[in-house]
Specification:
Shape: globular
Strand content: under 5%
Number of strands: 0
Largest sheet: none
Radius of gyration: 18 Å
Number of domains: 1
Order of helices and strands: HHHHHHHHHHHH
Amino acid sequence: MFPEIIKAIFIGIIQGITEWLPISSTGHMILADEFIKLSASEAFKEMFLVVIQLGSILAVLFLYFDKLNPFSKNKSINQKKETYSLWLKVLVAVIPSGIVGVLFDDKIEELFFNYKTVSFTLILYGILFILIENKNKSALLKIDNFHLLTYKHAFLIGLFQILALIPGTSRSGSTILGAILNGTSRTIAAEFSFFLAIPTMFGASLLKIVKLGIFYSPAEWAILISGVITAFLVSILAIKFLLQFIKRNDFKPFGYYRIILGIVVFITLSILK
């Protein structure tokens, strides 16, 4: 069991980093799966790779607890109203991908969950990040706080999250691009992407648990818990890093990284397959 826990920790590290940076957790997981193979049932591995995301969600709740807590005694009535409004905007943004995901999740996975699609989307959105950042270099950003982010903006950003249903796109990448195109600052784009992850990933985990069940061996539960705890700790570091990074830089370095990773995924898996 110990070797499997070590593997789960490595996967948790990958999950914690790649969930929040706009570089596609799926692309990294596909590569990792070729070299870090869990010795477990296929049902458990399918569940593990989704439910491990709960660790990443808990990191957001930990870091932003006060900002996202409408019941905080330290907040004025207006601040509590703004917190409720922020949650409503998050829920509005989740609706499009939630509907499409529930209706077509299995079909999308059947059609697109392969290394060729992942390679293509990694490269495509890498190019888009570079082009959009070049275009926005001199643009006047109108939305630099959540009060200015309207429900219409939230819904439009949510439409971009639908793109993330295609493997390799990156959930954070698609929502950050959508937010920037809607005139938000990079910090607002990143933070709104973090908040969108909470209901999105909770929902995805719940669907997977309902589909596959929770009846696993004690050893499998130990593997899952190890991965979740690791993803939680690493996510805290990754989120803090990203927020500091975008204060002084744009997202283009992630675009270049995606292009390189897409090429690596395609060449590596073309050889291995």
